[in-house]
Write a structure and sequence with these properties.
- By secondary structure, the chain is mostly helical.
- 41% of the residues lie in helices and 5% in strands.
- The strands form three sheets. A two-stranded antiparallel ribbon has the order 1-3. It has a two-stranded antiparallel sheet with strand order 2-6. Strands 4-5 form a two-stranded antiparallel ribbon.
- Helix 1 crosses helix 2 and helix 2 packs parallel to helix 6.
- The protein is globular, with a radius of gyration of 22 Å.
- It starts with 8 loop residues before the first helix and ends in an 11-residue tail after the last helix.
Length: 498
């Protein structure tokens, strides 16, 4: 609800004490006797405040599930819901067949989590400027808060379109604000990311103990993706080239290691949400949970101990054979029958308890040996969420360069991604080159929550998803949660077609 934009000071302080955004960099010291008047006075207060904003990036159940792969993968042609049956999270099945209701708790949870992140970022941006502390660190903290705010608006605008714009901590009288237009939200995102890019530190400037924080490259990469959404080709090309030319990132040599435990925060990582398997988190409203639920939700059922969601489709698997041979990234993306599922056993239909799926996602699979050392392992998955990888930025550059008329630059970035897995260079021009870039995004970034949004962004969704029920002019956006419309006394309006 819009009232979730504002939380009591006491609640935020509790979150600051007991939430974290990375495995290492949040000190968890009890705070006693804190009031609004005596907090936000020291450098430590500023760091604690921005860490509380970081913590919202981890939200996956608040209160219902709202995983990025819900929207990016299951709503696309790359995956289906899965689960034990159609009735297992049936609302998700309705959404993926574009028959979803407007009062689902899944969309309500996504909405609320993003606005909670925006609120916490706004608190930092309001309170930290008045603290006497080092100028460079203060600027970095404010840059991190601006990125977090921009990231949450990026999620909202790509899922819902125009939404209420809270550019500061709102007074109670301002809660029932109407929607801003999508262009106004995009403008706001651009400004925040430009401001953040100017003040954030390079990845190499952070000590190893703070690996995982937002960097200049993180903000520039999201800005490039924002420009791509808005078809600002020259700008997307220029900003992605800044990331490339920074020499802060490179493709790791082995694609199959990216999603392993050892592959976390590697040289390719630009934006990675941190999780840990030893936080002791539980079920319920997990706004203070530091463990990921993605591991258990996407793992096979039966002896593998998972819930079996986000099941790869045959069409997705077939895409790896489109060039007349098996793309080597398939074996790192999908489990097939007869293959070992790590240290959990061999994948057979019988071993999954009879669930009839031929494939499971290999990304975010965790070994039994990597499970939480105490407590329930289900809400304590340790796999970080790889949100933006360097390969993504190279493909953003390839697409932007193509659209800006630089086919040589497009091929260079495209083939750099392909060379990692020893694929032949693409020499095509014109439409064939653009299609090759689109195909490469599907293969390289498969099951990483990009596909649906790529289809919408490039206007291919009606032709690709039409057979699933997608209607042009309607399903590019999800419905505004009906609970929000009611809570604002009708100040919010519903998206067209719902």
């Amino acid at each position: 609800m819009m009232t979730n934009l504002k939380f009591s000071v006491f609640f935020i302080f509790i979150v600051i004490c007991f939430s974290a955004c990375t495995k290492d960099f949040l000190e968890k010291s009890p705070i006693i006797g804190i009031t609004e008047e005596n907090f936000y006075r020291t450098e430590a207060d500023a760091i604690a405040g921005v860490n509380a904003a970081y913590a919202t990036l981890q939200f996956q159940l608040s209160e219902a599930g709202h995983f990025r792969w819900f929207w990016g993968d299951i709503m696309s042609d790359d995956a289906v819901k899965g689960g034990s049956s159609d009735n297992d999270v049936n609302t998700l099945l309705q959404l993926e067949t574009f028959k979803g209701p407007t009062n689902t708790d899944l969309l309500e949870a996504e909405w609320s989590a993003n606005y909670e992140g925006i609120y916490r970022a706004n608190v930092v941006l309001e309170k930290v400027p008045g603290i006497e502390m080092g100028a460079k660190l203060k600027a970095r903290i404010l840059g991190e808060a601006k990125f977090i705010r921009a990231w949450n608006y990026y999620n909202l605008v790509t899922i819902f379109g125009g939404v209420p714009l809270a550019d500061r901590v709102l007074a109670p009288s301002e809660y029932n604000i109407p929607r801003s237009s999508a262009d106004q939200i995009w403008d706001f995102i651009e400004k925040d990311l430009k401001d953040a890019s100017a003040d954030l530190w390079l990845r190499s400037e952070y000590p190893l103990s703070e690996l995982g924080r937002i960097t200049k490259g993180t903000a520039q990469s999201l800005l490039a993706k924002t420009y791509l959404w808005r078809k600002k080709w020259a700008e997307a090309k220029a900003v992605s080239e800044q990331v490339i030319n920074s020499n802060e990132y490179l493709l790791v040599s082995k694609y199959e290691e990216i999603f392993t435990q050892n592959g976390e925060n590697n040289a390719e990582s630009i934006f990675e949400i941190q999780y840990m398997n030893a936080s002791g988190g539980n079920w319920g409203r997990n706004n203070a949970n530091e463990g990921s639920f993605t591991n258990v939700f996407t793992r096979a059922r039966g002896q593998f101990g998972g819930f079996g969601f986000n099941i790869p489709t045959q069409e997705f698997v077939d895409a790896f054979f489109a060039e007349g041979f098996e793309d080597p990234r398939l074996k790192s993306s999908v489990f097939r029958i007869g293959e070992p599922m790590g240290d959990r056993g061999t994948f057979t239909i019988e071993a999954t308890g009879g669930t009839p799926y031929l494939y499971y996602s290999k990304k975010y699979f965790n070994q039994r040996s990597e499970e939480a050392p105490f407590g329930d392992p289900a809400p304590n998955g340790g796999s970080n969420d790889r949100v933006i990888r360097y390969a993504d930025v190279l493909l953003v550059h390839a697409e932007a360069a193509y659209q800006a008329g630089d086919e040589n630059g497009a091929r260079q970035s495209l083939n750099q991604v392909r060379s990692r897995v020893v694929l032949p260079n693409i020499t095509a021009s014109g439409t064939a080159l653009l299609e090759a870039i689109y195909r490469e995004r599907r293969i390289e970034l498969g099951l990483e929550a990009h596909r649906f949004f790529d289809l919408v962004r490039t206007s291919r969704a009606p032709s690709v998803l039409g057979s699933l029920g997608f209607r042009e002019g309607v399903h590019e956006l999800f419905p505004i949660p009906q609970s929000q419309i009611l809570a604002t006394n009708g100040a919010l309006t519903q998206n067209f077609g719902y």
